[in-house]
Records
---
Amino acid sequence: MNRDLDEWLDYLTSIHSSEIELGLERVKAVAEKAQLLDWSCPIVTVAGTNGKGSCVATLENLACTTGVEVGVYTSPHVLRFNERVRVNGIEVSDNDLTRAFEKIEQARGDISLTYFEFTTLAALAVFRFYEPELLVLEVGLGGRLDAVNIVDPSIAIITTISLDHEAWLGNNIEKIAKEKAGILRNGIPVVLAAPTLPEVIALEANKLGCFVSRYGDNFWFDQVNHTYHSPRWKVSSNQPPNLHPESLSAGIYAFDYIYPRKVSEKSILEALTNGRLLGRFQMLAKKNNFLLDVAHNPQSASYLADRLGQYFDMSKPLNAVVGIMADKDIEQTLAPLINKISHWYLVPLAIPRACHPSSLKDKLLSLNDQATVTIIESISELEHDSIGNNFVVFGSFYTVEAALRALDNHG
């Protein structure tokens, strides 16, 4: 049967009873049949709670600006599934993806795969079509048991670590860090992309004989002067980066480690100045000003709160639009912004996991019983508001997706 991309994606949601099934035996067996485990090019695997996207985007940017053919796999997407699989900075076609899905379907036989496992294998199948010079793979959940971890990296990057997905990864930082450290391999270089990380990661790296580079020791970013530092480089920009500075720096450092002869001051400056991510500190200046960010856990919300002054005059009222998953630590995610927001607008999300706006309102009021809260049906309603208002939109990839679709249609 010939399926188009939408039909394939619908099919993938129907063939497994649960969204997540931990363990690599099934997905590795299919990968072996499809010949997706052995690669001749360098492979960078990126794990962490927050900042992975910034790191991946930086590696991709540097590859494209220095002429290195690169395949990139990320998740989740914001608007289109194709965002997850890119070659040389361009989303692959529906045809590439359907060909890859067909290849995985043939290889799996009666082996059951989750949606994420199937799509991860399909991404690798797409890269097999192109055979790029570099692969950059973002871990979706955890590390040790994530489908991406079937592929052995040449270099591993671990970004920030905080509480998220506790039901799957553990309910404390050390347990989560142990899962993230599962991407490490014997003797490979490891880049630690945060000023502080749980000691279990360094212990695991030392046990495996990994060569460890740390943010703050081997490379760093001066956020006052917007300057990237490493033993080889000192490059300054005239503006703060849009991407997460620690993860941005780790991406530069890792790429420079792999391709030292390709990197130049010009390519680093390009990464510092023009690095962008859909839905991460993305400003839409419509009738009103909307800052979109996929912050959805306490650490990322705190980082968002700290950076608001880069985008808005904080002496003026700032409104928030929020939709969030019910299984998140909602109170701790809202808390960093509770005293920065004049008016909260709560929006429903068309997904069963989402927290209902009325429940979200109760949680907000428990943090600040004087908060001004309005439940809306669609973000597009806010474009009919008076002109010149400022809004920050956050809480979930789904919230940012809803905002992008609503504002594109009604801006």
---
Amino acid sequence: MKFWLLMFTFILMIALIWASGAMAFTLYALNINPQSPNEDTQAIVVLTGGRDRVEKGLELFANDMAPELFISGVNTDVKDEEILALYKGEKALPFCCMTLGYKARSTMQNAIETKEWLAKTEFKSIRLVTGNYHMPRAMMEMRHALPEIQIYAHPVEQINLKEDKKRLMRLLLSEYHKTVYRYIGLTFGLDNG
């Protein structure tokens, strides 16, 4: 009888830890704000994969928040002109210094692709643009890959997800699990996860 009581207590504790972590992750992801929004950086890095991310990156670029823009994880069929067409702001975009990265297909690969791009520069600071729900894992991967770079989080609230609560909750739970999995992997040196 004691064995089953201990087993039940253990399972209950694991469930409570999981639920508490999921709730904390959700609250953090939904309430995260841009870090030092008026601070200029040497580059803006946008991770593709959700609506409004590239648009926000272009807006920051047009507003001179950094002299260079790197967009990671671009589909190989997408050209510069198609990216530029997403910009709807009034202020003109700079004439140069936008680079598209076509290699990345995951958040870990985004970090590797960004590291490879930054290796060609002497930059020490970036502004990272991605969805708010994706920012915790993206920051974890970027800090792991780029420990010497100052990274400012610039999360984007994706309106299409805000209107679809069920989809948003599924996405947040999925991101929570991916973040925990990668945290464990990085903690124990499993960098290929």
---
Amino acid sequence: MRLTILGTGNAMAVECYNTCFALSEGGKHFLVDTGGGNRILKVLKDADIAVEDIHDIFITHEHIDHLLGIVWMIRVIGTKMNQGKYDGELRIYCHSGLVDTIQTIANLTIQKKVCKHMGGRIRFIALEHGDKAEILGSSVTFFDIYSTKAKQFGFTMDLPAGICGEIEGEASQKDTVQKKKIKFTCAGDEPYNERDYEFIKGSSWLMHEAFCLYGEAEEFKPYEKHHSTVREACQVAESLKVPNLILYHTEEKNLKRRKELYTEEGKAYYSGNLYVPEDLEVFEL
């Protein structure tokens, strides 16, 4: 499974794209959030992810920096359906209260000949807390993050087990290959809520927002926006014993040094593998 970070910035970012990413397996892609506009089409192109190969999209919540790119995805994919250039259906996952919002915006801004596919080949899957789906051949569980601002869901994904070692027996015969379960978790763009512990526990990878450095909290005021600093995100991952932590949804004051500065602060509170990605950075999970 490959993870491509399409955007890393917060809502007001202009030097990098708003936070969104794609999981890829077998030439197919699962797109998580779509950013704030048609720049999603440019970053997908730059990441060499063909729109025709995206059949699953998850929108975490209604804020414009996560939502508005979906209108462009509907327009482009619906157009390709009309042209006979898109096979199968597009599945859009979102919490139940968000379906009408997306459809209303699309109907108000996109031609009817494209919108006609909504409810047909463009299928909306309204989620409730704890719902499951199979995406890219893996089991996905969606959960409410109990946002204080707008209803928002995160998810965990049980990836195909990875080989973590093999034991050579006597006469050079290999014993049973040991496999390690890989659990990938996206906790949304607000701090981890302990009410979701049963979903997040045992994660191999955790994506967690980190709005700014702890020392810059007075400048960026993350707590007023219901966000974390690097320090707090790392303390959460350490307490959960997550071996791999990806920080995202950040300010953009000093992009050239963001990786260096965030890593330096985070390592004081987190002993695992800490990643502070740039836009279009790729990980093998």
